[in-house]
Amino acid sequence: MKKLLIGILSLAAVSAFGAEGMWMPQQIPSLAAELKKAGLKIDANRFADLTGNPMGAVISLGGCSASFVSPHGLVVTNHHCGFGALQFNSTPQRDLITNGFLAKTRDEELPAGPGSRIFVTTNIKDVTARVTGSVAASLSNIDREKAIDRNVKQLVDECEKPGGVRCRVASFFEGAQYLRTTQMEIKDVRLVYAPALGIGDFGGETDNWMWPRHTGDWSYLRAYVGKDGKPADYSKDNVPYHPAHILKVSTVSVNPGDFVLVAGYPGRTFRYRTAAEVANMQSYSYPSTIKYATDLNNILRDLGKADKNVEIANASRIKGNDNVLKNYTGTLTGFNNFHIVAQRQKREAALAAYIAAHPQAAKYKDVMNQMNALEQQATAHEQRNTVLGWIVRSSPMLAQSSTIYRLSLERAKTADIDRESGFQQRDWPRITEGVTRAQKGIEPNSDRAGLRYFLNESQKLPSGQRIAPVDEAITKAGGVEPFLDQLYANTKIGDLAQRKAMQDETTAQLAARNDAMINLAAAISPLSLDNESQQKEIGGAMSRIRPMYMEALRTSSGGRLYPDANGTLRITFGQVQGYTPRDGVVYTPLTTIGGIMAKNTGSGEFDAPKAELDAIRTNKTAGYIDAHLGAVPVNFLSTVDTTGGNSGSPTLNAKGELCGLLFDGTYESLGSDFVVDPDITRSIHVDAVYMLWVMDAVDGAHNLLREMNVPVHFGNGASASTGR
Amino acid sequence: MKKLLIGILSLAAVSAFGAEGMWMPQQIPSLAAELKKAGLKIDANRFADLTGNPMGAVISLGGCSASFVSPHGLVVTNHHCGFGALQFNSTPQRDLITNGFLAKTRDEELPAGPGSRIFVTTNIKDVTARVTGSVAASLSNIDREKAIDRNVKQLVDECEKPGGVRCRVASFFEGAQYLRTTQMEIKDVRLVYAPALGIGDFGGETDNWMWPRHTGDWSYLRAYVGKDGKPADYSKDNVPYHPAHILKVSTVSVNPGDFVLVAGYPGRTFRYRTAAEVANMQSYSYPSTIKYATDLNNILRDLGKADKNVEIANASRIKGNDNVLKNYTGTLTGFNNFHIVAQRQKREAALAAYIAAHPQAAKYKDVMNQMNALEQQATAHEQRNTVLGWIVRSSPMLAQSSTIYRLSLERAKTADIDRESGFQQRDWPRITEGVTRAQKGIEPNSDRAGLRYFLNESQKLPSGQRIAPVDEAITKAGGVEPFLDQLYANTKIGDLAQRKAMQDETTAQLAARNDAMINLAAAISPLSLDNESQQKEIGGAMSRIRPMYMEALRTSSGGRLYPDANGTLRITFGQVQGYTPRDGVVYTPLTTIGGIMAKNTGSGEFDAPKAELDAIRTNKTAGYIDAHLGAVPVNFLSTVDTTGGNSGSPTLNAKGELCGLLFDGTYESLGSDFVVDPDITRSIHVDAVYMLWVMDAVDGAHNLLREMNVPVHFGNGASASTGR
Fold first, then answer.
1. Residue of chain A whose Cα is closest to the Cα of B594
2. pLDDT tens digits, residue range A115-132?
3. What is the dihedral of CA A662, A668, A674, A678, to 10 degrees?
4. What are phi and psi for residue A299, nearest 5 degrees?
5. A24: left (phi over 0), alpha (psi -120 to 50) or beta
6. What is the pLDDT of residues A604-662, one digit of tens each?
7. C-alpha angle B116/B122/B125, rounded to 5°?
8. Which pLDDT belongs to residue A495?
9. Which one from A80, A214, A381, A702 is the annotated catalytic residue?
10. Does the annotation count B80 as an active-site position?
11. What is the reported pLDDT for A16?
């Protein structure tokens, strides 16, 4: 494939140079001098070549990042990114979540579950002209949004036509630029190895987002393709994928001050959101999500206490909610600690002063007012829409019904391009997989308990925020409880075969079933569609104004600018560094296995496997001791700029070797989706040396070590924490 | 007065030299070389001279330590040591506890409350020969104990005969040595100044025992004497006491690595207790105290929520229990972390090996067995006696009744020397003061609620551990609740005038009152006396064996030995130093006022006064900035070896100036009453510079700063946090 060299962006910076910045790969050559100064020993230009080394080895799992570490398609990512595969393969009798898993041979590798994907970015192309260049300024806002949407779909369709790839057109710099990414889509993904939960999630929710940390947050997958080397659905006959490039795993721990670079797929940041938008997040969105996720998790946890099957069914949802909870709670603290709204107000005041002082900037004069007016419009029904969202989210059965019902509406459209994104032909196979995958999380009693809570919440909404179709349904049934009785007594949506059948039916066929859950989804549908339409209206207006806002920010300041995270491939670099979380306390940047012993309680969240504790107690550590620490390292802190989606990203050292896996940020960093504070913002990585040590001395994953071409020190007679 | 030079002890050490050691002042000259090496700039011999400088300025408050800081008897100690005086002078209308207090003139100074004392140690004399030298080896254990007790009382009586002094004969090295201390007893103590609770107890229970810390734990008292310069009861005509020596207060903050020395009155340590004794503390004494103190405090806290008067009445008890709770909880952790029982077992095994290998040590052969047998005997009824103790402790009214009843028994004895320690003539005035002082804490509803809980606990005791008199009383009344009804309906013990009258009555007169509380005290009395007798029996046996055990330990090892803390004047030295509480975390040794801002929540335990927050916000700090920190220091850590009773101790710098006040230990140090770990064990001090800054910039205590001869930087227009 041809070498990818996209025109370097020449945007002015609003942020000081440093560890802040989720840079687009094509921006990296312009940062070569800074990277060299920071300690990078290899040619910075290599990071712009997506099909070369090392970037050709950096992959997305959709929601997580990962990398190839062997020529046979072996992939390393976080434990929490492989969690779904562990859940999919777990039963009360064979609890892989708790005990971990190790395939000693390829035959023992397990399907990672429907919908598991590996995406390899192969091309990034600027398509701005084709997305917005042809859109007439005279169009109404909603028509403008629809025109942009149509152009985007067209670009995706063209790109995917050859097959074997997924394409996406993403907005950068708030709509100022559109880039199309092409990703090879590997569909046969298998679970190879994950340590026991007491390593992979050591510290659990208590330690999540926390430092000091001692979590072995890794798991291994393998990419399989057809015998022709092309992506194919799961088949016994598939063969391991042979990536063009792999990352060499470092056997040497990082030290304080060392250069590190992270390449991965950060999901979303809000660095360019306005003061009004941030203020609404602080006062409503975050607090309401915290309340609802807390209450839902309490309900699900209680139900799981008595029944292991229920516990397993709800595990993934609970884990997801917990993660959101700690993130949101910390971010709320960050809103206060970093005075984020005040910082934005200051930025906007400075911008206003600049505009007032520069006649040529007069065109930006009304930008802030327009954006603020749109923000008011967008949040006018937020209470109603928040509760409605949770009603669907709290019930996997209703969520499935809604998806299937919507699919029937979209499928009825004749032209694929008219179908809503997410429901086009290209999306149907993923929807099908989702229908199957959902079965693991469907547990009617938990479903009903969660839905009950949010239906009751809907009854507390003030007038002007009521959810009319829900009100009507409840009134008709004579209350929440009778409504739930009817709902769960008269639905087949929980039955996988029935659900699969429904998925292919027309709206009329679905209606003819008179299935209570489908009926509820149908009743809610018009309101959802109306909300979507309003969002498009606002989106169209925003797509005119936000690029102007970015332009104004760029014009009013100097230096480079990086775009907000949007799920596309990015590079961030910095150094291994601790921080001072508060007066009188210093967090040092590396933890050691001694800390595992100190934290281990032998149960609950701090329950390291006996094999690991034995290895620590008996100093079975030769070959893994870091000279600086005098101990085996576990996790380390760095100044790199990351967010959700970066999980599993390879952390590279100055030589471009994998020296760790990014897996978390610190609690004090949690405002960093909005503002980066170089003194405080830190990312957390698992040290590659810890991973190798556990694989060697604890789990006996010697087959994988050999496959990765790293030395095995304890090849004989090692006991394993996995597969108990 | 003559210079005090007691023969230097030449005991072998069982501990490595370092910051460990609560040294007797007379041992200090033998440590001169080490002190110099550690950084002391003044002559070490000065610390053996109790009437010279600086030791002449170091005083005891009975339970706390303190020091003179002006020629006019001004005393500085901890806020929590002056808390009783604040409580005594507080009313719901004038809440000195919350708002603090500052006497701008001597006329405004307030009596610190009955029983407040200042003790100035003037002499320490070795009286071992007179205590145990004449006791015949043939005596029974109980007679031996009685003989020792009689000798001690005789020595005290002789010593106190001239008047104006309190004397005490204390056992050192587990009874191997007896020293008699003579203390001038100043009885007119007045409250001069305490900062607001939001400074003096900033952080409250949450931060208690914790680092990093930001507590302004100081208060000021003044010693008054009669016009003749001799101790006298409170009188308006009394005049300030003029101490022969005072401590100069340093205006320069300490820095990491600086030499520091603490002189004070540590209460009790268990460094020489056996493995069996420590194991029983770990398995029973500590857990049971934690349970009971927790439950009692929950009861008292609930009752205080609705009524400010109730809250004030119980404040001191709750605070005391909370302090015990955190201490005991941390110590329990320390038992595990430091493997204290295992360490003792190791020490005892080493001793056994030594004895087996050395024929001349054969006499020690049975020492451990004998001590272990006595320990078993001593704990045979520990459940019964623990609950009995809490029954009395939970009810201030029953505690007063018990004291008054016992006093009537002891007063009946003709010879004062036959009276039990604590009930001799010399103790009567203090008992009288206690009877008055108790009134502040008597609140019948709280009293009943606490007593109810422990009476119910007594009903759960297993057979063999039952409290017969309590069982009988409850059975007779027909249950706990009817018993309580009768108890509180038929007692006048809560009435101060009645209680004062009771205090002077004979046992027969008390019985004739038919007061229900007195009757309960009388019913419990025989069991208490029997317990005392058994303790004496065991004490007599132990007094033969423990000195042999110490001798064996001394013989089997080399170097200096310091005695366990016993409430007598001690000196400990070390340096300003942080520590690593856990993997990945370093605690730096100084905190700053910036940390107050960060912790302040504006309510509850973290509620710094507005005047302080304003002073921090407006950088009203000139003259108090530490160059090393670039900020005003607040608290610091050091390696000195301290325990309860050391609170309020002056911390001296290398020049012998007061550079801080010892007020706490860290949570991780809490096993240090048993074992000192030089890497972990730390004491917490308030920096003198913080105290001076608050007095100057926040509280406007300029009169006191001038009295202490330190510069005033903010003499005009300073607002005050106190007296709101």
1. A583
2. 899 999 989 999 999 999
3. -80
4. -65, -50
5. beta
6. 999 999 999 999 999 999 999 999 999 999 999 999 999 999 999 999 999 999 999 99
7. 120
8. 97
9. A80
10. yes
11. 32
Distance (Å, whole) CA B20 – CA B24: 13
Q: Which residues of A touch B586 (CB under 8 A)?
A: 585-588
Reply yes or no on whether the pLDDT at B342 is more than 60: yes
**Cα diameter, chain A:** 78
Return the beta strands (E) in B568-722 as ranges.
570-575, 579-582, 585-587, 590-592, 633-638, 650-652, 658-665, 683-687
* Cβ pair B212:A587 closer than 8 A: no
pLDDT at B340 over 70: yes
| Backbone dihedral angles phi then psi of residue A624, each to the nearest 5 degrees | -125, 5
Query: Does the bond joining B54 to the residue before it have cis omega, within 30 degrees of 0?
Result: yes
- Rounded Cα–Cα distance for residues B201 and B721 (Å): 14
Contact B723, B99 (CB under 8 A): yes
Tell me the pLDDT of chain A averaged across its residues: 93
Tally the residues of chain A. 724
Asked whether the predicted pLDDT for residue B561 surpasses 90, the reply is: no
- Give the type of residue at A593: I
Contact B281, B269 (CB under 8 A): no
Q: Which of A49, A201, A217, A447 is catalytic?
A: A217
Task: Name chain A contacts of B587, Cβ cutoff 8 Å.
Answer: 584-586
Query: How much of chain B is in helix, strand and coil states, percent to nearest 5?
Result: 50, 15, 35
A386: how many CB neighbours lie within 10 A of its CB? Answer: 18
Mean per-residue pLDDT, A358-378: 93
Closest residue of chain A to B596, computed from CA coordinates: A583
Bridge partners of B652, per DSSP, are B261, B658
Q: Does A371 have pLDDT greater than 70?
A: yes
Express each pLDDT in A229-264 by its tens digit.
Answer: 999 999 999 999 999 999 999 999 999 999 999 999
Give the helix ranges, DSSP H, for A557-649: 593-599, 610-617
Average pLDDT, chain B: 93
List % helix, strand, coil for chain A (3-state, nearest 5).
50, 15, 35
Each residue of A662-686: pLDDT tens digit?
A: 999 998 888 899 999 999 999 999 9
DSSP A133: I
CB contact (8 A) between residue A214 and residue B582: no
Residues B711, B708: Cα–Cα separation, whole Å: 9
Whole-number Å distance between alpha carbons of A286 and B550: 64
Query: Per-residue confidence at A561, pLDDT binned at 50, 70, 90?
Result: confident
- Smallest CA-to-CA distance from B77 within B214, B158, B191, B243 is with B191
| φ, ψ dihedrals at A170, nearest 5° | -115, 145
Three-state SS at B9: coil
Q: By C-alpha distance, which of A19, A78, A36 is closest to A577?
A: A19
Task: Give CA–CA dist B594/A449, Å, rounded.
Answer: 47
* pLDDT tens string A270-294: 999 999 999 999 999 999 999 999 9
Domain coordinates in residue numbering, chain B: 275-545, 570-689
Residue A652 CB: number of other CB atoms within 10 A? 28
**ipTM of the complex model:** 0.79
The b-or-e profile of A140-152 (16+ CB within 10 A means b, else e) is: ebbebbbbbbebb
How do residues A415-446 score in pLDDT, each as one tens digit?
999 999 999 999 999 999 999 999 999 999 99
**Considering B72, B79, B80, B702, which one is annotated as catalytic?**
B80
Alpha carbons within 13 angstroms on the beta-carbon side of residue B637 total 30
Q: Are the C-beta atoms of residues A650 and A274 closer than 8 Å to each other?
A: no
Tokens of A258: 């060392």
Q: Tell me, what DSSP letter sits at residue B189?
A: E
Distance set, CA A69 to CA A76, A200, A252, B451 (Å): 7, 19, 16, 69
